[in-house]
Amino acid sequence: MAGFRSLARQVRDPRCDLALRRYSLRKCLERFAPYGHRATWDHLCSRHLIEPEDRAPDPARLVAALEELEEARAVWLAYEVEFARRRKREKHDGLRRPGSFDDWHRRTWGGCGVAWCDDPAAHPVAPLGDVLRRLISALESGPGANCPVCADSGIVWKQGLAHDPWYGPVCTGCGILVPQPVLTPEALAEAKRVRRRELASVA
Question: Most buried residue, 93, 135, 152, 154, by most Cβ within 10 Å?
Fold first, then answer.
């Protein structure tokens, strides 16, 4: 199975036909897709003016989309290195089991679904690298009341999501599943109240 870097070389290789180069970019999303495969593809297509079903897109646009994905992956890999260092220190200090703060991290193996977007058409508009930097910064600082990516205060508790965790606080502004550790207990409680009000209005 080809790795991310091998697939990225195929995306850039002018000797490959455009269908293969596009296919290789899609395969890159099986290795790294911060919003999930479909939402990340939709994001890259909309930002780089690629028709999602075009089998022979402009190669310059394919490469630009790849470069955005690579930058975001570099941000995530740097975080993973620091996370591993922190866990090593914690184990040395006797903390063998990760705390509940790190529950979200174990569900994002390889960076897939780091900022999960359950609706593939609803995702942040900022570059992927910027989104991950904001998310990581929020995880490394104290919890707040707003979405760490778009600063929107509209957060609602959703259930039946298509990704583990199957429920949680979703930003109505940018569509990400907000990691619970970045929200205050009051913000989480308000998200659940919004959910209950929505259910009551439907009933």
Answer: 135
CB of 176 closer than 8 Å to CB of 116? yes
* Type and span of the H or E element at 71: helix 59-92
DSSP string covering the chain, please? ---HHHHHHHHH-TTS-HHHHHHHHHHHTTT--TT-HHHHHHHHHHHTT--TT-SS--HHHHHHHHHHHHHHHHHHHHHHHHHHHHHHHHHHTT--SPPGGGHHHHTSGGGTTTT-BSSTT----S-HHHHHHHHHHHHHS--BSS-TTT----EEEEES-SSSSSEEEEETTT-BB--GGGB-HHHHHHHHHHHHHHHHHH-
pLDDT in tens, 24-44: 999 999 999 999 999 999 999
Query: pLDDT digit string (tens) for 149-176?
Result: 999 999 999 999 988 788 999 999 999 9
Count other Cβ atoms within 10 Å, centred on residue 142. Answer: 8
Those residues whose C-beta lies under 8 Å from the C-beta of residue 101, and which sit 6 or more positions away, are: 181
